[in-house]
Amino acid sequence: METNPCINPVKVGFSIPPRVSRKSKIDDTIVNISGVRIGGSEIVMIAGPCAVESEEQLFETARSVKAGGAKILRGGAFKPRSSPYNFQGMGEEGLKLLSIISKETGLPVVTEVMDTRQVELVASYADMIQIGSRNMQNYPLLKEAGMCKKPVLLKRGMMATIEEFLQAAEYILNAGNDQVILCERGIRTFETSTRNTLDLSAVPMLKQLTHLPVIIDPSHGTGIRWMVPSMSKAAVAVGTDGLIIEVHYKPEKALCDGHQSLSLDEFSKLMIDLKKVAKAIDREI
């Protein structure tokens, strides 16, 4: 999507970091994930299970979301969990499964890295590495991601301000990697009816302040399966460059976040609806 060179600066109560600021780069940055471009006119769908649980679960889900129109496959091999007793992911075995299905479907893979010691390993399998909400201010990890040659999907911290989010992204750019995508995934507020409060206003604000692509995670943003379609459509309407959605072939049996994961049929139906919304604002999916 082309940006107006005469874009009006937003008055905010903080200094925008230089490398992420539109003062340093007026045109939108296009992030290239093994041929899939995020940041242009196309709204890119990233879909897949919260965690890689088995070959059957991953392969069936991946094939279905590909058929539905997803361009990138998501799936966690290493999972940060609040309880040490919950499923922590399959580790390198999960990465290997992601690599196999990626070659079969042609879908690039994004998966989370949690530790500086994992960056080289994860980057050897994934097309894009993800830094999750809990690690947004893990500065050694941000620097390591900056030295990595793979694109980075950076999620906003659950209690982070826009300023803190941009400062985290600046760490990555400052270390030499400008292929960064910002992901709004909901913030923690006093509201308890949803898992988080999905801050859709962050999309136009970030796109005004920075040249980096901005995507939305409605799955973590709400934590409720039936809310994901509505918030996905709203995200498209406010200008998101992409969506990252959790999809599982059997959500009721998921080992991680099944309550917020769409079924295969629900994802396919959502894609049909999203194309209508995109068309209404002169974009495409």
Can you describe this structure?
This protein is an alpha/beta fold and 285 residues long. The chain has one domain (31-276): Aldolase class I (TIM Barrel), CATH 3.20.20.70. It is built from 9 helices and 10 strands. The chain has helices at 55-68, 92-105, 119-125, 139-147, 162-174, 202-209, 218-222, 228-238, 264-280; strands at residues 31-33, 36-38, 44-48, 72-74, 109-112, 128-131, 152-155, 180-184, 214-216, 242-246. Strands 9-8-7-6-5-4-3-10 form an 8-stranded parallel β-sheet. A two-stranded antiparallel sheet has the order 1-2. α1 (55-68) runs parallel beside α2 (92-105).
List the helices and strands and how they pair.
Elements: E1 31-33, E2 36-38, E3 44-48, H1 55-68, E4 72-74, H2 92-105, E5 109-112, H3 119-125, E6 128-131, H4 139-147, E7 152-155, H5 162-174, E8 180-184, H6 202-209, E9 214-216, H7 218-222, H8 228-238, E10 242-246, H9 264-280
Parallel strand pairs: 3-4, 3-10, 4-5, 5-6, 6-7, 7-8, 8-9
Antiparallel strand pairs: 1-2
Helix pairs in contact: 1-2, 1-9, 4-5, 8-9
